[in-house]
Amino acid sequence: MSYEQITIRRTCEAIQIPNGNTIMIEEGTLAIITQALGDTYTLQVPAMGGLFRVADRDADALGKEPRRVETATEANADGRVSEGSVWEALKNVYDPEIPVNIVDLGLVYDLTIGEATAGGSAIDVQMTLTAQGCGMGPSIAMDAQRRIEALAGVAEAHVQVVWDPPWNPNMISPEGKAKLGMA
Questions:
Q1: Which of 72, 94, 111, 175 lies most in the core, judged by the most C-beta atoms within 10 Å?
Q2: Dihedral of the CA atoms 42, 44, 45, 49 (nearest 10)?
Q3: Are residues 134 and 164 in the same domain?
Q4: What dihedral angle (degrees, nearest 10) is formed by the CA atoms of 111, 115, 121, 123?
Q5: Alpha-carbon span 127 to 147, nearest angstrom
Q6: Distance CA 18, CA 26 (A)
Q7: Over the stretch 106-133, which tens digit does the pLDDT of each residue have?
Q8: Which 8-state DSSP code applies to residue 123?
Q9: Residue 54's domain spans which residues?
């Protein structure tokens, strides 16, 4: 993994890791991009003493072009979303401290596709986190929900963070283990 030192080009919003507080990083602040996956950036900001997540909409503040990750947008012939499309969308959601998506980390426990009352698909996802005290849980769950809702054929999506069963490293997929050097 290579790190890139940058200077913030304009004041931008960020989420503090791991507690999830929203803060502003001021223009001119030195930072190091430690992770750029999905459509978020993880920054180490020495002057602020920690790690922060910046959304792709603020990529220009980091001197980057927006990368908007595209996911499959075609609905099935019946107007509903395919299960494969939902899984692919979830593979673009990352824990800001771990360079593996939430699917390959084994954080997604259940994915159910039903029919929404207004037509289209209603998606319910149960997921967990690597640690119960992680304040990033709501942010990661919201990212997952936002990506699912962007799929054609999805009328509604609900992502719930659960703790049973407790997550452990054995839940990481072979692909995730390879990425983390555990294979």
A1: 94
A2: 120
A3: yes
A4: -30
A5: 15
A6: 20
A7: 999 999 999 998 888 999 999 999 998 8
A8: E
A9: 4-62
Whether 78 is in a domain gets the answer no
CA distance 86 to 112: 10
Amino acid type, 45? V
pLDDT of residue 12: 97
**Each residue of 42-70: pLDDT tens digit?**
999 999 999 999 999 999 999 999 876 55
How many residues are listed for the chain in this entry? 183
pLDDT at 77 over 90: no
Q: Is 87 within a domain? A: yes
Is there a single domain that holds both residue 93 and residue 173? yes
What is the tally of structural domains in the chain? 2
Domain presence at residue 77: no
CA distance 54 to 36: 10
Based on the fold, state whether residues 48 and 99 are members of the same structural domain: no
Separation CA 7–CA 5 (nearest Å): 7
